[in-house]
Write a structure and sequence with these properties.
alpha+beta; GMP Synthetase, Chain A, domain 3; three-stranded mixed β-sheet; 3 strands; globular
Length: about 110
Amino acid sequence: MGERILKINKQLHHEVGKLLLSEIEFPASCFVTVVKVSTSPDLKHSKIFLSVLPEKLTGTVLKVLEKNKFRLQGQLNRKLKIRPLPRLSFRIDRTEAEATDIEELLDRIKKKK
């Protein structure tokens, strides 16, 4: 991955995180975190991977983000000097949930022994 893409990922991670805190109204008692950003080599698309707690609100959070995606994109266009600014898409990072599932399976295996 090129140096420029790494810098763009880092900058988008920081700016999207700030915008999610200040501009988007998520359901009460919902915690949304930007886990990582992956930008395509042609700089046309960026996948924003999120962690949502509690997990049962994941669908609601994605709907809220889709509804506000163009507003977020516009604010990023004004804040950042990246041209072209990649189009954002939001994804859920399942790493933590999968790790929890694996730990539970390992615990069950230990108890059976």
